[in-house]
Amino acid sequence: MGYVAIKGGETAIREAARLLEFQRAQGGGTPVQVDTIRDQLHLLTGRVISEGGLYDPDLAALALKQAAGDTLEAAFFLRAFRSTRARLAVTDMHDGGGMRLIRRISSAFKEIPGGQMLGPTPDYLQRLFRFEQLVEGGEVFRSLARDWLRDLPPPELPDSFPKVVDALRAEGLLPSPPEVTASAFDITREPLVFPVSRSAALATMSRAETGSMLAIAYSSMRGYGDVHPTVAELRVGYVPLMLSHPVTGEPVEAGEVLVTECEVVAMYTPTEEPGAKPVFSLGYGACFGHNEVKAISMAILDRSLQKGMAGTPDNPSEDPEFVLLHIDGVDSMGFCTHYKMPHYVTFQSDMDRLRSTQARQAKLAGEPA
């Protein structure tokens, strides 16, 4: 959606921008620093990184500051900036099995190879206010980190953990992974033309708006669909960014990115193929940053769309065109906010048609004009 900023009187626009800055400063508080947003609001920053499609925590934090916390506007900032950057290299396909984990859980099994790792999560906390944070001082805040590091046990974790879905495949409960026969769909350079490939669907969902994906996935959970999955594995961690060396061609690690990955297992679909045994079906979700709701929602929608792509969709969450054209936050925000632009000509036309219709109706009824 190519909506751009509204044009108008130069003085009015300048004063509107000044008023926006005044709103930010009128309370007299200390300006929020970019590193503060990046570190202390890391879940929010990660959401903007994911929806903006550009992995840069500093720029995501700056975008949130400029957008006064509006995540859709902040994602728009990132996408606009990304469009000005040259593409220097393309990575090979990455495997989440090599992730440097900070969190790893499974709801399918109590015990999994390598063990459960709760990591940083509020899942087991009561949603009660901690009012001491209203007056949290700098030294108290820093002591939290010092105390945790002091009590940290020696690291005994392996470099990588086995995948739960690999164990299910070994038992014959999941199909073998499909062979990769084509390059990944590039959502930033190619338009969606239906019917779309699964790669195109995953690329679209990976930078979609979290709330939109949750809403449609929730419709499937509640009954407008039949995907009620089990989380085989949810991973949060850092994936090494591998690039080919310009001289030797060997893969070298150029950095790492924080990623959330989810694989859900759903009930099998009966098959009519002779000799084919029933197996579970698999849905996959992955996104930048620590965003478990988005990754789970994406995995559910991936599973739903696979059913819709294989035949006639029975529910909205299974319809690729319905789902993929309505989950992009920047697109939908642009369409929504474009109604604030001048529509004088079209509205005048609407009024003329309405007046003419009223006049004809009055004439047929014998009423005075």
Distance between the termini: 44 Å
Kindly state the mean pLDDT as a whole number?
88
* Approximate helicity band: 40-55%
| Apparent shape | globular
Strand order, main sheet: write it out: 1-2-3-4
Number of strands: 4
Radius of gyration: 25 Å
What is the H/E order? HHHHHEHHHHEEEHHHH
Describe the protein in words.
The protein is of the alpha+beta class. The protein has two domains: 10-82, no CATH class; 96-332, no CATH class. It is 41% helix and 12% strand. It contains 13 helices and four strands. The protein has helices at residues 10-25, 34-40, 42-52, 57-66, 71-82, 138-151, 164-170, 198-206, 210-222, 292-310, 320-324, 329-337, 344-364, and strands spanning 100-105, 230-244, 251-266, 281-288. A four-stranded antiparallel beta sheet has the order 1-2-3-4. A hairpin with a 6-residue loop joins strand 2 and strand 3. Helix 9 (210-222) packs across helix 10 (292-310). The longest helix has 21 residues, at 344-364. The radius of gyration is 25 Å and the shape is globular. The protein starts with 9 loop residues before the first helix and ends in a 5-residue tail after the last helix. The mean pLDDT is 88.
Condensed summary:
This protein has helices spanning 10-25, 34-40, 42-52, 57-66, 71-82, 138-151, 164-170, 198-206, 210-222, 292-310, 320-324, 329-337, 344-364; strands at 100-105, 230-244, 251-266, 281-288.
What are the defining features of this structure?
alpha+beta; globular; 369 residues; 13 helices; four-stranded antiparallel sheet; 41% helix
